[in-house]
Design goal:
Layout (H helix, E strand, L loop, with lengths): L20 E3 L8 E3 H14 L5 E5 L4 H23 L15 E4 L15 H9 L10
Antiparallel strand pairs: 1-2, 3-4
Amino acid sequence: MNPLVLVNRQHPCPDGLSLELVPVHPDCPHILLEREAADMLALLMAELDGWRSITPVSGWRSPEEQAELYRRSLAERGLAFTRQYVALPGHSEHQTGLAVDLGLFQPEIDLIRPAFPYEGICQAFRDLAPSFGFVERY
């Protein structure tokens, strides 16, 4: 897959993406990324020893999972919140296998807005991320 793909509210996820999905970490076999993205995330996290403090929250999502997330957010948090924080089904970067949500290890993690402060290990991650092909989008 070409890693240069634009997916947002105005540009839907292209149909027929050929993905090789793999777990982002052995402790999280249900959170998947496209192989190259997972490999680069592993290198970045090794550089930071990041898995001690940072946990993967969400990776690849099927269109059905994205639709369910959107429906659930509407019901629980309302339209304004959902429009701001949850991509429309078919318009989520997560459907490309190239997007990952990360958060600090905490007893409770918000699946839509996980804590990822602009300090400490999270800021160190942000600083190194572009060198490994990652950019912060939201």
